[in-house]
Amino acid sequence: MIHETTGRFAASAAQRGTPGARLPTLMLSAVLVMGSGAAAADDGPIVIDKQGAFAIGGTVIGNQAASLHCDHGVVEYQIPPNPRATNLLMWHSASAVAWQNRWDGGEGFQSIFLRRGYPVYLWDGPRVGRANWGCEETTYEPEPGRDQQNFAAWRLGPAYLEFFDGVQFPRYDPEAWNQATRARYQEFDTVANAELQAEAAAALANRIGPTVALTNSAGGLRALLTALKSDNIRGIVAYENVGFVYPEGEAPDIEPGPFGPVIVPLDEFRKLARIPIQLVWGDNLDKSDRFTSAVEQSRLFAELVNKHGGKAEVLMLPDAGLVGNTHIPFADMNNVEVADLLSEFLAKNGLDAYR
Fold this sequence. Notes:
Blueprint: E1 3-4, E2 26-28, E3 32-34, E4 37-39, E5 46-48, E6 50-56, E7 59-62, E8 67-70, E9 73-79, E10 87-92, H1 109-115, E11 120-124, H2 146-153, H3 174-182, H4 191-208, E12 211-216, H5 219-227, E13 233-239, E14 245-247, E15 262-264, H6 266-269, E16 276-281, H7 292-307, E17 311-316, H8 335-348
Parallel strand pairs: 1-17, 10-11, 10-12, 12-13, 13-16, 14-15, 16-17
Antiparallel strand pairs: 2-5, 3-4, 6-9, 7-8, 9-11
């Protein structure tokens, strides 16, 4: 059965064998750039022991005379002193910035969990963001109307620039919306691309060690596929996932689309039963038909994982006392409370130990 969870704050986790040269301890005063001004850091300076970035995965096409390195991922990492033993891999399929800031520019999950002792990795999968050299030809066409689509997809309100009452978005700050919609970049939503990104992410997990994947939207499907490819994925917390993996013979009757479903042999699916999985949903779902099916699928997915010996749970934020959350709750104005629930999940599943 599905475990519907509620809760509050607990602890955190970190890493082993982190790449990169050891730097002198770096102290960064977190100046939070707000939509209409600046605010002081919540808890003083952030202390970082190591930081850097690298590419991983991918291939090389052409020949020795004319070649191209392509289809790799790019990760940026920051590691605090005395880190916990499990990494946090923050994965949004179309915007790493969403993990770095709240909607208003305040501290995002990257900073929050550095303060809590976790090594944090921000991920751009193959062909997106800083990893945009692909091995296949792609095109970009400007699409007027994407702003309106984003507003609806993020569940900010019933109509463009008409916000829900109590929504956890700075509705009276025009610069917040300007920054939010400019944080996007092109993504490629196909199952084949999800598999490609999962291969690169598995190579990353195998390099950095035990990792919990934190995902949003289409990033959730990619992380589930990654867990089938690397034993170093030790947990998944998926915020408003829109694509799922199912075992053969037990998949729902869903028309194939850009987010699957992906159907695998039962032995493969059982790999997902080895790790704790939490599927998190925000508020105002009853006012948005587009999410009804995804929520139903998340419940079915959790039931199937648990049927085969797993530990999957569905967390509805309103049931935990958090109201007004959007499709991207970790960037909402109450993201510290959302982070507290994540810390509780990590502690409950033994993913908060120090090295």
